[in-house]
Amino acid sequence: MFSVKNIFLYFVLLCLGAAVMYFFIHQEVTDDKTIVVDKESLYYHSLFRYGTKHDSFNDSLGHLDGEHLDDLVADYVRDEVMFREANHRELGEKDSVIRAWLIEKMELLVHGMMLERVVMTEDEKRAHFEENKEDYFILPNYTFAHVFFDSKKHGAKHAMELAHLEREDLNQNDIGFDDASGRGDLFKYHTFYTKRNSQYVANHFGEDFVNEIDKAPISHTHWTGPYASNKGYHLIMLTARSEGRYPNYEEVADQVTQDLQTIKVARVNQIKIERLIDSYTVVIDETVRSK
To answer: Which of 52, 54, 240, 255 is most buried, with most CB under 10 Å away?
Structure first.
C-alpha cells in the first residue's frame, strides 16, 4: 500500500516532472519557433537566393519602400520556415538533393563572409596586373559587312564563281555597306559585324578567314574577296580594324580588381573550409578499406 508520505512524494515528483517538461517544451518552441529577421539574415538570404553582393545589398535595402521590404522579409521567413521544418523532419538525412543544397548554402555562407573581409591594396592590384598581362591582352577587332555563298549548297567551285560575279555587281553598282543584307545566301550568324574581336569572328568563320581579313584593305566603298571560311566564300567591306594590344593598368583596373578579389576570396574560402574540417574528428570505419 502507498503511504500518505509516498503519495505526497509521488505527487511532488509528478509536478516537478511536468514543470521540467513544460520548461523544455517552451524552450524548444522559443528557440525553434521564433524567427529573428535582421539585416544580416536578409543579406545572407539575398546572397543565397539571388547572388546579391554586399555593397549592392546595402544600397538596395536603403532604397526599398515598405511594400518591397515586406516582400523581402516574407520571402526570407518562408525559406527559413521551410528550412527548419525540413531539419525537424530530418529530410536531409538520406536525400542527396537536399544534402547538396545544404552544402551549397554553407559554401555560399562562407563565401559571403570572406567577401566582406577581403582587402586589396593598390600595389597588390598593380602587381597582379603586371604578373598576368597576357590575361588582359585586347584582341584585334573588326567592323565589316559580308555577302556569303554557301559551299554546301552550290559546291565549293561554283560558290567561288558566284562570289566573283557578285563582287563585280556590288562594285559596279556602288552597293554600300548597309545594303549587304539579303544578298547572296543566308549565313548562319550575322551580315554585319561591328567591333567584334578576332576570337568572336573566328568562332563564326574559322581561323583562316581571320588571317585573310587581317590583310584585307580597309574601305567604305569597295568590296573585296572572295575569302574562304569554313562555310563557303565571302565578299567583305571592311571599314575598320584595330590591332591587338596590351592595355595600360588604368584601362582595365576594374577587371583587375574583380579578378584579384575572386582569387583572394577562393584562397581564403579554402582556408576557412579546411579549418571547419579540422574542427571535426573523422573516424574512418574499417569497412572502407576492406577488400
So the answer is: 52
